[in-house]
Amino acid sequence: MIEFKQVYKSYRELTIFRDISLTLEDDGIVAVLGDNGSGKTTLLNILCNIIHPDSGDYFFDGEKITKRSKKFRTRFGAVLSEPIFIDELSVEKYLEFVCDFQLISGDSVKERIDFHLNWLNIRDKKNTKIKKISSGEKKKVSIISSLLHQPNVLFWDEPFINLDQKSIAKILNFIGGKNSPNLILIATHNIELLKNIAAKFIIIEYEDIRIVNNNNAKDFKKVDLGELMQD
After folding, report:
1. DSSP helix/strand/coil, 87
2. For the chain, is the Cβ count within 10 Å smaller at the N or the C terminus?
3. CATH of the domain at 76
4. For residue 38, what are the domain limits?
5. Average pLDDT over residues 170-177
6. What total of structural domains would you count in the chain?
7. 156: which strand partners?
8. Residue 6 contacts by C-beta under 8 Å, 6 or more apart in sequence?
């Protein structure tokens, strides 16, 4: 469960959130919507404990998260708006580094990396340095990094930018499927991709947050690449 209690966040004289409170449980896909500069990335960065509220409390599964909270980071996966890579490492070596950070060891390291590289069709880049792959391929590496430890919660900031249509279809089929994480927060400007599968919308405007149930949500239907291309 994710809970904010009277969270206030500002940047100098600009207030982003003014004493907001919210609660999210195992709500499936939750789309985070708002204009440019409204606070979508700020919200995701607070959830990932990259930045911290000026006041108020943030709880993750009942644990109060502070600047010193570290262990809870293994319980979620994140795609950041500005991912932090080690550019001199190859794709495979970087993902091995992520596995080590997420306490994954043994034969499962290679198995998980190979599976995800094949899934998003970048196995041919496994020995290429991060700094030499395309922006779309970096986005795939970031998504893979968020999934290697099989978390029950995902915080994704604009995960679809720079991706090809085939990869988008694969990702939508994953997050909408039966084996997806229990809670998936996705900040996006492309609401068309999520409008029929998001259980809820978080709408950020005027220093506040509203949570709206999606009454148009449908039972998930596997995404057909041809239909996605037409859209």
Report:
1. coil
2. C
3. 3.40.50.300
4. 2-230
5. 93
6. 1
7. 79, 186
8. 19, 20, 21, 55, 56, 57
